[in-house]
Amino acid sequence: MRAKLTLIAAVMAFGYSFAQESDNGLGIYSKKIDSIVIAEKSRMNKELDQIDKKFRENKLTADEKQKQRTEVASRYEQIINEKIDAQKQDLEMATKELVKDAVFKSNDTIKDGKDQFWLGLNGLNLRFNERQKSNNPKNYLETFEISGSTAGAGLTGKDEPFKFYNKNSDVKNTIINSWQLTFWYGNQIGSYTSPLFYRFGLGVRSDQFTPKYGQAFKQDQNYLFVSDFDRGNLKKSILYNTYVTIPMDLKFVLNPKYKEYGGVKYLDNRKEQLCIIMGIYGGIKVGSVNYSKYSTENSSRIVEREKVMHGVNDFIFGGKFGISYYGFNLFIQKDFTPSFNNGALLKKKYGLQIGIEVASLNF
């Protein structure tokens, strides 16, 4: 209760400080919370007065009076908590806006558009033109988004498609050796209360593969393979595969929340959501480069980049499964087609990635 009263006090204090900004809705929320507390406190006082009256009429002992007063206070504490919880999301957004206005905005920019910038569990986030969408929940069902993600990429075999840390692979399995940047368009499927959404996009993906045991990628006239490095002291060997991708996702909201506006009931896409995501993607290779960094007796740093001519497929196709909570998105994606073809003398050729979306921009 003490934490909630602190939140209420913060909202009311900042709300009165910026009461002149009636167009941003923050004063409304201050008055709403103030109204909740005052109304419930008034009802509580009426019940306490009845208990005191019974005590004065000798209908209650002192112990009974104290017990009943404690029960009433506890009950109204729970009522206030429940009503504040019902407003929790809006309260948090209002409080963030108030603090941001107080700290970051100067007097001549207080009434600018409500572009937002924040750092959360899912990394860096930006949201533009929030004010132009108003409070109509319909405006939040259609989305435009740019997302960035990092992943650990490895190679698996056709017979063991999900064996990520495969000891028989020629390449290392590392925590972060792949990244993706995607522009998305999304919308709701079905009625305004439907928990099902789709999104499709256009993106770029780059996978990095480092051979094990200090070896290096090499290629001759026909094949790509991994072998010992024989031109000096090898410091780094990485093969970069880069693709232009076209992904498509389906998102199912497990805990949908709703809002009525203009007599119509909508799924509120601004609330915290627990979602299951399933998707497919295709990719076209736009580059494949073998990077080598080494030293010799004559030079401490030699860097070579050569175009990979053999062994890498031009197309990939795969599927994705993910779990998302309020923009915090963990996913596994599997290439159904091999990243490397018969021109690559590698033990494992199918890509598998475990990753997380670390940044998003919502328009």
Task: Give a concise summary.
Strand 1 and strand 2 (123-127) form a beta hairpin.
Strand count, sense and closure of the main sheet? 8 strands, antiparallel, barrel
> In terms of structural class, how would the helical and strand content be classed?
alpha+beta
Please, how many helices?
A: 4
Approximately what portion of the residues adopt beta-strand conformation? 35-45%
Mean pLDDT: 82
Rg (C-alpha, Å): 29 Å
What quaternary form is this?
single chain
Low-confidence stretches: 1-24, 105-113
Order of helices and strands: HHHHEEEEEEEEEEEEEEE
Total strand count, please? 15
Distance between the termini: 37 Å
Reading side by side through the largest sheet, how are the strands ordered?
3-4-5-8-11-13-14-15
What percentage of residues falls in helices of 4 or more residues? 10-25%
Based on CA inertia axes, which overall geometry fits? elongated
Task: Considering the chains and any ligands shown, give keywords for the structure.
single chain, 363 residues, alpha+beta, 8-stranded antiparallel β-barrel, two-stranded antiparallel sheet, 4 helices, 25% helix, 40% strand, disordered N terminus
Can you tell me about this structure?
- By secondary structure, this protein is an alpha+beta fold.
- Helices cover 25% and strands 40% of the residues.
- The protein contains 4 helices and 15 strands.
- The protein has helices at residues 2-17, 26-56, 62-86, 88-104, and strands at 116-120, 123-127, 143-156, 178-188, 196-209, 216-219, 224-227, 233-253, 258-261, 264-267, 274-295, 302-307, 315-325, 328-335, 350-362.
- The strands form 3 sheets. It has an 8-stranded antiparallel β-barrel. It has a two-stranded antiparallel sheet with strand order 6-7. Strands 9-10 form a two-stranded antiparallel ribbon.
- A hairpin with a 6-residue loop joins strand 11 and strand 12.
- Helix 1 (2-17) crosses helix 2, helix 1 (2-17) crosses helix 4 and helix 2 packs antiparallel against helix 3 (62-86).
- The longest helix is centred in the N-terminal third of the chain and has 31 residues, at 26-56.
- The two termini are 37 Å apart.
- Residues 1-24 and 105-113 have low confidence and may be disordered.
